Amino acid sequence: MDDVLVIKITGKLFDTDASLIKGYVEIFKDLSRKYKLAIITGGGGLARKYIGYAREIGVSSNYWLDMIGIRSAQLNAYLLISSLYPKAYPEPVNNLEELLRIINNYEIAVLGGLIPGQSTASVALEVAEALGVNKVIDYSAIDKVYDKDPVKYPDAKPYNKISITKLREILRQKQLPGEYALIDLRALDIAERSKITIIITHYKKPETIYDILRGENPGTIIYP
Ligand SMILES: Nc1ncnc2c1ncn2[C@@H]1O[C@H](COP(=O)(O)OP(=O)(O)O)[C@@H](O)[C@H]1O
Ligand SMILES: O=c1ccn([C@@H]2O[C@H](COP(=O)(O)OP(=O)(O)O)[C@@H](O)[C@H]2O)c(=O)[nH]1
What we know:
This protein is about 40% helix and about 15% strand. By secondary structure, it is of the alpha/beta class. β1 (about 5-10), α1 (about 20-30) and β2 (about 35-40) form a beta-alpha-beta unit. The mean pLDDT is about 95.
């Protein structure tokens, strides 16, 4: 199979101005001339807004709250697809079997969420594992992995490289709908078992993907 890039984008991209989204579209169109792209979009503010509404009207089931998040992430995926079609498969891919069927016929496949109990980071690792890709580029809401949450602890220290084992010790995030901050534990388990490296870079700098493709490290390398 041609070189495939597995790219995860925080849903926060879709909470910003359209010009940044347009910047991603242009980069993906450029990259699709040389690579197959499997893009995974997060749920962002849309997911948190609707999960919040659901909780306010008394929905407490994590199944329903996660499903709302999944559909939110799929709507963000649709936005990218609408601008990348006909290069992109014309709907968010619903499962890994479908992905394996369509990836040979389209330059770009876009996914939102897949199943309750995980985040889109897990989707990205499931996609990479299914496609036999050993690297995931994760456009995150943070520039690097730190030794603790830098938003809460200003004295947090950044890592340029960190092992999955060490990161698992650091992460304390709740694995709940709308939470799973930074990366969820299931994603790390898949990365570890299939020896997949995750490269974190800030979503406000989409062009850093070219540095990564040249072997540079603009953020943090999470290695198995
Ligand atoms: N050790 C850590 N290093 C970096 N960020 C962390 C860490 N622990 C928690 N976080 C939080 O995770 C957030 C990034 O996760 P998130 O907002 O879910 O982004 P994404 O949408 O890319 O998953 C950061 O803004 C930060 O508040
Ligand atoms: O396979 C998936 C992907 C996402 N989600 C839900 O959808 C929300 C939004 O996804 P994510 O948190 O990954 O988006 P981001 O952090 O990028 O905004 C998650 O919090 C989960 O509640 C899910 O249940 N299964």
